[in-house]
User: Fold these one by one.
Assistant:
Number 1:
Amino acid sequence: MFVSPILKVAGLLPLMVLLLASCNSVDVTDYKNNQPKLVAESFFDGQLRAAGVLKDRSGKVIRYFTADIKAYWKEGVGTLEEDFVFDDGEKQRRVWTLTPNGDNRYIGTAGDVIGESDIQVAGNSMFLGYVLRIPYGDGTIDITIDDRMYLVSENVLMNESSMSKFGVNVGQLLLVIQKVD
């Protein structure tokens, strides 16, 4: 049976539209009207406590952790001192510096972050992307992190991080950060 080339292309059109639509990514500005409004200088100020899980690329939880975070601002620049404790006893420390960079934007740096992170805030959300150097075997490996945070109440922030290497998903991190009285 002869099928014209036009009909073949027309039959592929819904698939092509679906593929193109899936290429659109969520932007932090999609949340600009969401409440409660995330103000980095307010939420990330004082003592915070985090708890979370690390998942492998299949979605299986492979590690659990908690973190104590001391957050403060001096001369307009924020510092987050994060002390992690993993379920196997491993301890890690990361110190972030958040430097304002225009309206609802910051530049984030940390000792194990390669280069700078562009941080954007809108509504109840904060998105940041960066390359994290982590211990791996006898050396280190650089992983691209896509971090998305959502303030769900005045004192609770949900964080989801996608981790990739060469554009391939290698894991996820899920955590809750809560202000401590």
Number 2:
Amino acid sequence: MKFICPLIVVNNMEISKNFYEKVLDQKVQYDFGENISFEGGFAIHLKSHFSNLISINKDDIIQKSNNSELYFEEEDLDSFLQKLKGMDSIEYVHGLKEQPWGQRVIRLYDPDMHIVEVGEPMESVVKRLLSEGLSIEETSKRTLMPEEFVSQFL
């Protein structure tokens, strides 16, 4: 068995497609109308079509359940944050926050209230902490990354 991708249900394909393309710079791999796969390895599916496929009432598909998220990484997180400042339609779960392991992240909702997390890659976190003067050992302890991983960024 092979896992293929997560699929989230959306109310409006064009609005959601536009969000993922324009806000998160995702590229469409396949567009089947009611189902779009992105090169990043996830798909969106139109709620009315999806509810018919699984034989449930579309009102039984709950928005803003806050029980999952799509996770993205952005090397230039500061530029991404600037990009978001110009978008009034974005609803945030929270602003920029540093996780206990040192990674900076922001969480927001997509147009259908699915949580989207955008964080800096751990390589960037390690480089930042090392440049701030932390030792290999301190950086390893803070980020939970092995010392071998940390030492390659000196």
Number 3:
Amino acid sequence: MTDTVASPCVSICALDGDDICVGCFRTGQEISRWGLLPASRQREVLARCQQRMFGHPAACVVDEMKQAGQV
């Protein structure tokens, strides 16, 4: 069985000035690379979306992966 994580997209696709979607709270990079991320990273994105939803800063998972040389 494949480990799959449903996209948090709610079809309200608009990025704010901080590059965060006002619908799902993912960054533009997290949205564009969602299908390429392993399920563990997708779950990490979802956790950060929750933080952002409640006004807490949360770094972009893709940016962190780039810094670590994983992308």
